[in-house]
């Protein structure tokens, strides 16, 4: 079984080196952190996004933006503080239209580069498979041995991708500037 383990580890190392992407940080990559957007352009920025926003009167609203126009954001509201705000003029399914001129600040998460989840998925798969190969050294059935290694590699790769997606997400804060008309 030792020879099988060495073959498996050698194969996994070869696959790891072949499929690991070269990651070189771009020097000119833009930093997305805090943005300033006029109220009439806000709809285009947040369309289809899950957002948290604060209105100019201090009301906090959280939900998903369904439709937008130059002057309004139509969203499915998941949560609001104060809660009484949501019951005023409520539409079916907690849908509300908000005037963009009433919005002060918007917070949202954007997915980052795909390279990070892919790299962590490859690393997680390699570590999961290598760890299982070492741990399953005493398994006498070759099919059970390869099954354990394969399942562990798949679990490690999945965990790596999930962690990589979380690590790659970027928090964006948008300050909304009212348009004087």
Descriptors:
5 helices, 2 domains, 181 residues, elongated
Q: Going across the major beta sheet, what is the strand order?
A: 1-7-6-2-3-4-5
Rg, please? 24 Å
Biggest beta sheet summary: 7 strands, mixed
Give the low-pLDDT segments.
18-33
User: How would you state the average pLDDT, rounded?
Assistant: 76
- The shape, in one word, is elongated
| CA-CA gap between termini | 78 Å
Assembly state: single chain
Helix content: 40-55%
Order of helices and strands: HEHEEEHEEHHE
Number of DSSP helical runs: 5
Give the amount of beta strand, in percent.
25-35%
Count of individual domains:
2
How many DSSP E strands?
7
Structural class: alpha+beta
In short:
The chain is an alpha+beta fold and 181 residues long.
Structure, described:
A hairpin with a 3-residue loop joins strand 3 (60-68) and strand 4. Helices cover 41% and strands 28% of the residues. It has 2 domains: 2-21 and 112-168, no CATH class; 47-103, no CATH class. The termini are far apart. The protein is built from 5 helices and 7 strands. The chain has helices at 2-19, 42-46, 84-87, 115-135, 142-168; strands at 34-38, 50-55, 60-68, 72-81, 95-99, 103-110, 170-177. A 7-stranded mixed beta sheet has the order 1-7-6-2-3-4-5. Residues 18-33 have low confidence and may be disordered. The radius of gyration is 24 Å and the shape is elongated. The protein is α+β, with helices and mostly antiparallel strands and 181 residues long.
């Amino acid at each position: 079984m030792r020879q099988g383990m060495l073959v498996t580890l050698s194969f996994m190392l070869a696959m790891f080196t072949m499929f690991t992407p070269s990651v070189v940080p771009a020097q000119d990559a833009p930093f997305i952190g805090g943005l300033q957007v006029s109220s009439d352009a806000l709809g285009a920025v947040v369309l289809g996004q899950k957002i948290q926003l604060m209105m100019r009167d201090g009301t906090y609203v959280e939900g998903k933006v369904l439709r937008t126009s130059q002057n309004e954001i139509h969203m499915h509201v998941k949560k609001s503080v104060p809660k009484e705000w949501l019951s005023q003029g409520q539409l079916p399914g907690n849908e509300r239209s908000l005037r963009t001129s009433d919005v002060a600040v918007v917070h949202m998460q954007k997915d980052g580069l795909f390279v990070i989840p892919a790299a962590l998925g490859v690393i997680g798969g390699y570590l999961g498979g290598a760890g299982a190969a070492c741990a399953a050294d005493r398994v006498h059935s070759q099919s059970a041995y390869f099954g354990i290694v394969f399942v562990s590699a798949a679990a490690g790769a999945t965990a790596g991708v999930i962690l990589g997606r979380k690590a790659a997400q970027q928090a964006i804060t948008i300050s909304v500037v009212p348009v004087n008309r």
